[in-house]
Structures are given as structure tokens and as C-alpha cells.
Amino acid sequence: MIGWEDIYKVLASMFPLYVALILGYGSVKWWHMFKPDHCDAINQLNCYFIMPLFTFDFTTRVNPYKMNFRFLGADVISKAVIIITISLWAKLSTKGNYPWSITSFSLSTLNNTLVVGVPLIGAMYGPFGENLVIQSSILQFTVWIIILLMMYEFQSVNKSLTNDSTTDDLEGHTEEDAITTRPSLLILIKIVGFKLAKNPNAYACILGLAWALVSNRWDLKMPTIVEGSVLIMSRAGSGVAMFCMGLFMALQPKIIDCGATLTAFGMLLRFVVAPATMAVSSFIMGLRGDVLCIAIIQAALPQAIASFVFAKEYELHTSVLSTAVIFGTIVSIPLLISYYVVLDLLNK
């Protein structure tokens, strides 16, 4: 049975993250210490130096030969169910459309595994829970983000083709002149690969996984000089990431920037649909006990910051994703603790 000491341990692990977030918010909103260009510089530092090493550090701790493949299988099934459901909605519903399919997929699949998930679930379930969350983050970086980027690229191509066609018609060109060939799947994959190459977190995860495979296969230890070089930056990962989120919150005109209806829609997908789908998939894969609880809670983690970055880059429902990241991070703690308590009661 979960006692107050257990809840306090969870709060104690999360409170420092929110201190960093409040400091970031206050440094812009209240104390006017940073201008927007300063915030951009801090975000660049976090994106290109701290977070990649933070991701690499955690990924190297996983033993790929002892991964919980039933847990990962449940994650794959849950995401596949979400993709199929969204696709059917886009095809069959009169209100369904491709742009909202992309946003719905992002809201229901991408969560903040490392920055929030590792300390939170580590406090709840110890190193075993941390290890499963890191495994989930590897799958997210190597599969789900790639799928999301491909969806964005398809949308971008369709949008550009539509604009080209409209421009041609207005200029009075013939229909033959307005015809544009769609790029092949190979070209889209190359575009996505190029964008992933610009995202250091993607190959930091891949490099970390490669080292984990080699080191666990031949029982190698990372050289102390390399380990120290990684740790000196990665130790700042959680704090700086939350500080940057505070900066981002302060720069937005409103915390809820997309209206109450869309905010509720985003929260429903993130905190209800995602964990419910994961729960069903986990039962299908035969997960029980703490593994089942961890699977459900990690699926209900707040929205990944990367999802907003991609939405902003492709200019698609940016306000919805920014609200999901900001508001979702704020309300996630009581929700996740509630999940923790309820699942513990059901698990007895």
C-alpha cells in the first residue's frame, strides 16, 4: 500500500524540476533578465549540447540484450492502434483531415520520457522503472519521431502542391503547366533523414544504443575521460530543459493559447487516450504487476517538448502543441500521482 512517504518521495523528485521551470519563467516575466534572443541562445545550448549528452548518457545505461520486449511490444501495439484509429477517422469521418491526424498522433504518442519520466518513475519504482522508461525513449527517438516527421513532410508536400496549383490557376496558366509530380517515398525518407541529422538527440540515442550493444556484449567500460566529459554536461540536462520550458512559457502571450475546447482535446489524448490504449496493449502482451503499472504511467507522461518544436517548424497547430506542453506539464503531477495510487490499489 502506498503511504505518504511514497508520495513525498515522488514529490521530492519532481519539485526541483518545477523550481527550475519557475526560475526560467520568472527570469523573463518578472525580473526581465533575458530578452527573446537570449532565450534562443539558451535553447540552442540546451538543444545542441546538453540534451544530446543527456540522452546519450541515459541510453548507454541500458542493456539491449536484457530489454523487456513484451513491454516494448505493448508500446508498439498501442501506437499502431492509435495510428489505425486516426487513419480511419481521417478517411471515414466528415470532420477528419490529414493535418489534424498529424497533431492527434503527436499528442497521443510523444511524451517527455527522459526529463520528467526518469526522475518521476525512478522515485515510484526505482532503477527498474527508470530502465523501462529509457527503453521507451529509445523506441520514441528511433521509430515514432521518424514516423511523425514523415507525416509532416507529406503534409508539407501536399500543401506546397496545392499552393502551386492555386497560383498557376490565378495566373492563367494551362492545366498541364500546373501539374506537379509528387516526390517518391525515397525522396521523403531522405528529407526526413536530413532533418533527423540536424536533430542531435536522434543520433545521440543511436550512438548511445550502439555503445550499449558493444559494451554489454564484450563487457567494456567507458573510458573515465570520456565518461567525465559526457557527465559534466548531461548532469545539467533535466534542470536546463525545465528552465528552457519556463523561458518558453514566459515568451508566450497566454499559457492556454488555443481555447478551452482544444486544450481539453489535447489533455484527453495525452492523459486518457494514451494510457488507456497502453493498458489494453499491455494486457494483450501479458504484462502484469509493476511492469503494467509503469507502462501505463509512462504513457501518461506530459507532452514531449520536441513535438512543439516540430509543429512550429512545419507551422501546423502550433498553439495546440504549445498549450499541451505548457499546461500538460503543469497539471501532470497530480494526475500521475493519482494514476500511481489507483494502480497500486488495483495491483494488490
TrEMBL record:
The keyword GTP-binding does not apply. It is found in: Membrane. InterPro entries: Auxin_eff_plant, Auxin_Efflux_Carrier, Mem_transp_PIN-like. It is a multi-pass membrane protein. The keyword DNA repair does not apply. One of its GO terms (biological process) is auxin polar transport. GO terms for molecular function: auxin efflux transmembrane transporter activity. GO terms for cellular component: endoplasmic reticulum; plasma membrane. The chain crosses the membrane at residues 7-28, 71-90, 102-126, 132-152, 230-250, 262-285, 291-311, 323-342. Keywords: Auxin signaling pathway, Membrane, Transmembrane, Transmembrane helix, Transport. PANTHER family: AUXIN EFFLUX CARRIER COMPONENT 1B-RELATED (PTHR31752), AUXIN EFFLUX CARRIER COMPONENT 5 (PTHR31752:SF2). May act as a component of the auxin efflux carrier. Belongs to the auxin efflux carrier (TC 2.A.69.1) family. This is Auxin efflux carrier component. The lineage of its organism: Eukaryota, Viridiplantae, Streptophyta, Embryophyta, Tracheophyta.
